[in-house]
């Protein structure tokens, strides 16, 4: 009882009343302070990175819709044009993981600058192409080094806390999506001018140079990266610099005797990362990448014959279908703003959000396949733009959560390689499905999405803390 009295319950009435009044003062609401200079600089860094994503897709989307027309004007047959067009996807398939791993080793700044500048060179060559050979040659540097968005996402995962990562990635996708909406409009206008394609390619080249200058001017010394050690940490402990500035400080001076050792160290790190990647792909994270592949192919099947299917089923002209696609793209870009409230509703459970968004995607694909009016098509397209955008962000966040953000470049690169496989598979499956019915591709896509949902449901228990802890354990 004496102890209780010392807490203010056994004192004299006067003293008790005197001691009861002061406690509320410490519990008063603290005054809100404006964000410090460090928080302001971090926010400014993120906004600059969003601008990089916007400029990247803005420049690319000006040129990409015109490629088929340009290669045809150069005298290429449909078969040759198809081979040249598929070369980009094949190069991306093999380069995505390698470039992502390379960015983990040499740092985000160096890898971003190299990728942007060499991609700019590719678009400059594209603008100067006067025959099919030069056109195909121009696609090589772009196919190998066009990974600006992947490295930028890896950099975002280094900069922000794990809880904030899905929201920041969603905002980055929104900024990039706006560029993808505006780019075709500018490119379509320019291509009607004399030498329009060459002018468009030159402007794309200039946009990439502007992007490189922006990356160069980033306040890298103020960026605090959360990935203190690169590598997937599956039984090894690589010791790497923490930031790009550390990389520059740790790098030997030109002509130093240790330059050869530095090169060997970098190659050894890449080799270790690739071995760890193989371990993740075929053991711990196989289901994550399989779900990514299935959902990517499902969505690609939906878009594969969208224009043709609407014309055959409802008599909609391609121009009107183009407006519908632009409308859906705009909504998909805006979906990034809805990701924050959705994650708070789900208590930042990316796996459950991905499961439910995939289920919604599957349902909407079936709804589109059985639609009897354009109103149902517009409704399904509207909701699909939200579900697919949120699903893409969540699958990327889940990869980084399960694999650990220490090698975010490698993990995101692996995801891009898996998506590249989908780009190769989807046209083949779409062609076979269209032989049956114009609704064949989306129905097949719904079936693949259902398989992905089944896999996620089976492995939901494995996505908990034990599995994550096992992957991040040294």
From TrEMBL:
Membrane topology value: Multi-pass membrane protein
Gene field: MFSD9
Annotated Low complexity bias: 9-20
Domain of life: Eukaryota
Protein name as catalogued: Major facilitator superfamily domain containing 9
Transmembrane segments: 45-67, 79-100, 112-138, 168-190, 196-218, 285-304, 324-346, 440-458
Organism of provenance: Sciurus vulgaris
Lineage: Eukaryota, Metazoa, Chordata, Craniata, Vertebrata
GO molecular function annotation: transmembrane transporter activity
Family to which this protein belongs: Belongs to the major facilitator superfamily.
């Amino acid at each position: 009882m004496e102890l209780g009295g010392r807490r203010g319950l056994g004192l004299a009435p006067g003293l008790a009343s005197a001691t009861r009044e002061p406690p509320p003062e410490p519990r008063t609401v603290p005054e809100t302070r404006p964000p410090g200079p460090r928080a302001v600089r971090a926010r400014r860094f993120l906004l600059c990175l969003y601008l990089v994503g916007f400029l990247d897709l803005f420049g690319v989307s000006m040129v990409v819709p015109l490629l088929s027309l340009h290669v045809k004007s150069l005298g290429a047959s449909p078969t040759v044009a198809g081979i040249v067009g598929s070369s980009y996807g094949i190069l991306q398939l093999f380069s995505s993981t390698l470039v992502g791993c390379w960015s983990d080793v040499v740092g985000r700044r160096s890898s971003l600058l190299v990728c942007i500048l060499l991609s700019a060179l590719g678009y400059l060559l594209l603008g100067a192409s006067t025959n099919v050979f030069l056109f195909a040659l121009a696609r090589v540097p772009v196919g190998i080094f066009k990974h600006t968005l992947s490295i930028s996402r890896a950099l975002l995962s280094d900069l922000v806390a794990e809880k904030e990562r899905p929201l920041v990635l969603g905002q980055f996708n929104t900024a990039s999506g706006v560029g993808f909406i505006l780019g075709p409009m500018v490119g379509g206008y320019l291509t009607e001018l004399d030498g329009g394609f060459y002018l468009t390619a030159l402007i794309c080249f200039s946009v990439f140079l502007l992007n490189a200058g922006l990356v160069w001017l980033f306040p890298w010394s103020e960026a605090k990266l959360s990935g203190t050690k690169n590598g997937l940490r599956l039984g090894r402990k690589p010791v790497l610099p923490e930031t790009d500035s550390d990389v520059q400080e740790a790098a030997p001076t030109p002509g130093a005797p240790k330059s050869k050792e530095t090169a060997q160290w970098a190659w050894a790190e890449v080799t270790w990362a690739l071995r760890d990647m193989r371990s993740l792909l075929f053991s711990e994270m196989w289901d994550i990448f399989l779900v990514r592949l299935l959902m990517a192919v499902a969505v690609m099947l939906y878009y594969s014959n969208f224009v043709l299917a609407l014309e055959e089923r409802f008599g909609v002209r391609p121009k009107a279908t183009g407006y519908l696609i632009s409308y859906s793209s705009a909504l998909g870009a805006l979906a990034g703003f809805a990701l924050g409230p959705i994650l708070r509703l789900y208590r930042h459970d990316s796996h459950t959000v991905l499961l439910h968004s995939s289920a919604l995607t599957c349902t909407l694909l079936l709804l589109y396949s059985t639609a009897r009016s354009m109103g149902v098509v517009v409704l399904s397209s509207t909701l699909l733009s939200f579900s697919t955008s949120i699903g893409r962000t969540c699958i990327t966040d889940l990869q980084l959560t399960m694999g650990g953000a220490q090698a975010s470049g490698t993990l995101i690169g692996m995801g891009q390689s898996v998506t590249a496989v989908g780009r190769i598979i989807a046209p083949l499956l779409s062609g076979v499905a269209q032989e049956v019915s114009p609704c064949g591709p989306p129905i097949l896509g719904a079936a693949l999405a259902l398989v992905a949902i089944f896999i996620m449901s089976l492995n939901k228990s494995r996505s908990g803390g034990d599995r994550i802890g096992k992957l991040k354990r040294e």
